Amino acid sequence: QSALTQPASVSGSPGQSITISCTGTSSDVGSYNLVSWYQQHPGKAPKLMIYEGTKRPSGVSNRFSGSKSGNTASLTISGLQAEDEADYYCCSYAGRPGVFGGGTKLTVL
Amino acid sequence: EVQLVESGGGLVQPGGSLRLSCAASGFTFSSYWMHWVRQAPGKGLVWVSRINSDGSITTYADSVKGRFTISRDNAKNTLYLQMNSLRAEDTAVYYCARRGEGHYAPLDYWGQGTLVTVSS
After folding, report:
1. Are A2 and A12 spatial neighbours (Cβ–Cβ below 8 Å)?
2. How far is CA B43 from CA A31, A87, B120, in A?
3. Which chain B residues have a beta carbon less than 8 Å from that of A34?
4. Model confidence pLDDT, tens digit, residues B70-111
5. Minimal Cα distance from B98: which residue of A?
6. B23 near B77, Cβ under 8 Å?
7. Nearest-CA neighbor of B49 among A3, A96, A22, A49?
8. Which of B47, B95, B106 sits opposite A48 (nearest CB)?
9. Subunit contact B44:A100, Cβ cutoff 8 A
10. pLDDT digits (tens, 9 = 90+) for B48-79
11. In Å, how far is B76's CA from the nearest CA of chain A?
12. Which class for B54: exposed (0-12), middle (13-18), buried (19 or more C-beta within 10 A)?
């Protein structure tokens, strides 16, 4: 069982916005603004999309945004595109390295 | 361009050993902490181990502690993972990843992974 809880799947139509939640505890997500989000297409390596909760690495579309409220972090993808269909993982620092969520499969209808 | 290329995966019997390598290029390898993360077939990402820039500090997940050893050769720009006493549950794609600059930085670059299959 993952330390961070994500929905198994979400879906949306092209052009819509979707939000993926990542629920932790006051010991990880709630205590640190250190949530990162990774996108993984089938058979590919994970790609960093958001770090420190809200920051985007160079080259990542501004359609991707991150936020946090209490013990829950969220990834929002606006203007959904076909190429956004992938698995998404959250990760939070928790006084120890690499606490990942179980992953969310995003389907673009 | 940052590149991380893993190798060394394959089929091994339970109780066997395997050494994975991760060749790094496009950045000053000796300046960065490096990690191994694995992903069992159809499952999520699980952190395995990390090593600091000069190799003097290593950390392991409880599930591999005492069986796996992470190391690096900064002269060869290569990260290693020695895996002993392998179990079926170690079957996974193993990724090496670079931690960005700063103690709390995310894993900003990942390799394509190498598949380890533990089966008789």
Report:
1. no
2. 27, 11, 22
3. 104
4. 999 999 999 999 999 999 999 999 999 999 998 889 999 999
5. A48
6. yes
7. A96
8. B106
9. yes
10. 999 999 999 999 999 999 999 999 999 999 99
11. 23
12. exposed
